[in-house]
Write a structure and sequence with these properties.
With about 210 residues, the protein is mainly α. The protein is built from 12 helices and no strands. Helix 1 (about 5-20) runs parallel beside helix 3 (about 45-60), helix 2 runs antiparallel to helix 3 and helix 7 runs antiparallel to helix 8. It starts with a helix and ends with a helix.
Length: about 210
């Protein structure tokens, strides 16, 4: 009957599914949703459970519900940087990158030591908004600080293609494959998926142009 513990366990199941560590991501997502519903019945005033529900709905491709839950979390706790970031993250998939940029910038302002992922997704939002030079500047700063993750290199590869810089795109793609040899563009666009099918097709097209496998 402890809402905080159930919320923490729900997030753990969600992360297990999100990063495909779980042997059954679908089952883990379902368990995360079940526990989140328990939290709501125990204490509906916990803002982050709404961020979790929004994240689950995004994975399940229920975009309107994902945004609605994310907005509720931000309304309930406007100074929660993670709530703003997660709503911004959702909006990069549901088709509103400009609003995502504003939310993530505010999230960065709210925390003195923002996680690197904040900047990665800010770079993605700028790329999706067509601000390619801004995206490159953000993402290059991310990999200069920490080059251990393949995710910013995927974003860089895509952005360099948008700028017509194939050589740099292929170099970034090589880093992706060095770090994550199992990377596939088809999986990249599924977790989560873009709401717009044309955006999905373009994403695969530019990743393929960078030399990343389907």
């Amino acid at each position: 009957s402890y809402a905080g513990a159930q919320e923490g366990l729900a997030w753990t199941h969600f992360i297990d599914a999100k990063f495909r560590w779980s042997p059954s991501p679908e089952q883990s997502i379902a368990e995360a949703g079940r526990l989140a519903s328990n939290v709501l019945s125990l204490d509906p005033t916990r803002p982050r459970v709404y961020s979790l529900l929004g994240s689950i709905q995004l994975i399940n491709r229920n975009y309107d519900a994902a945004v609605e839950f994310g907005e509720r979390a931000v309304t309930m706790e406007p100074n929660d940087a993670d709530a703003r970031f997660l709503l911004g993250y959702t909006l990069t998939f549901s088709g509103d990158p400009q609003r995502a940029i504003a939310l993530i910038k505010k999230a960065i302002d709210l925390t003195p030591y923002p996680p690197g992922l904040y900047h990665v997704v800010l770079g993605r939002a700028n790329r999706l908004a067509g601000s390619y030079h801004q995206a490159v500047a953000i993402l290059e700063a991310v990999v200069a600080a920490d080059s251990s993750s393949y995710i910013p290199f995927v974003e860089l590869a895509a952005t360099y293609i948008e700028l017509g810089n194939t050589d740099k795109a292929k170099a970034a793609a090589k880093k992706v494959m060095d770090i994550s040899p199992d990377f596939r563009s088809s999986l990249w666009v599924q977790g989560p998926a873009f709401e717009d099918a044309a955006t999905t097709a373009h994403e695969i097209e530019i990743l393929r142009a960078a030399g990343l496998p389907d």
